Amino acid sequence: MPKTAAVRVPASSANLGPGFDVLALALDLHLTVEGRESAKTTINWAGEGAAEVPLNRRNLIVRAAQEPFDGWSRPLDGLELRVRNEIPIGRGLGSSAAAIIAGIMLGAKLRGLRMAAQRVLELAVPLEGHGDNLAAALHGGFCIAVIEDGGVRVHRLDWPSGWRAVVFVPKGLSPTREARRLVPRRPARKKCSSAPIRSASSARNTSATGAGSASTSTSRRTGTRSPTLCAMPT
User: What is the DSSP string of 6-71?
Assistant: First the structure.
């Protein structure tokens, strides 16, 4: 009987406040995947995205269970997956990050590999391209993620108990690649470097004067990305 495994990964909201590619929050929506190795790849997908994602080897969960292991661990012949997904696809809630983390964790379990969280993150970044959503999907909570010297450093904070996340889910897609293309490549260094510090401060001490408003300002990025956001004026 082939070995079976299961993983459950949360949605996430990233680029919080001025923390572009740095700050992310895990949300109470989940991607649950049960799988086993099989002769061919089949996917039974229920929930969000059932009509939007490929149900074959091109599926991101399948790719994440295979590609990061190339060259150092055995390939899987195929995957038989049962997927239950609560995360809207392409709406800015970290659906790709959840799929990548789920695929890598599932691939490791099916190969009998014990993998540290940091190793999972390192394998995931080349597929996703940035670490913020990945960090929140892997660690949960409120995460500060910084890519330095080819590696990812993550600091996890507990989300303040008095805070609540309110999520707006647009009907249309919010293409990540297009939105990222519109953001200036060289933002002011001083603003970017202080973002994690200010946001961490506000998370630890919500009563600090001005902490909330300073750490949640998005004016630098939102204006440039508004053409990709169907609910925002352009």
Answer: EEEEEEEEES-TT-TTTEEEEEEEEEEEEEEE-SS-EEEEEETTTTTS--STTSHHHHHHHGGGTT
CB-count exposure of residue 88 (10 Å: 0-12, 13-18, 19+): buried
CA triplet 94, 227, 14: central angle to 5 degrees?
A: 25
Could you give the CA distance from residue 96 to residue 24 in angstroms, rounded to a whole number?
Answer: 14
The residue extents of the domains of the chain are 4-161
**CATH no., domain 4-161:** 3.30.230.10
Does residue 14 contact residue 132 with C-beta atoms inside 8 Å?
Answer: yes
The whole-angstrom separation of Cα 131 and Cα 201 is 21
pLDDT at 145 over 70: yes
Q: What is the pLDDT of residues 38-93, one digit of tens each?
A: 999 999 999 999 999 999 999 999 999 999 999 999 999 999 999 999 999 999 99
pLDDT bin (cut points 50, 70, 90) of residue 198 is low
Structure confidence at residue 209 (pLDDT): 39
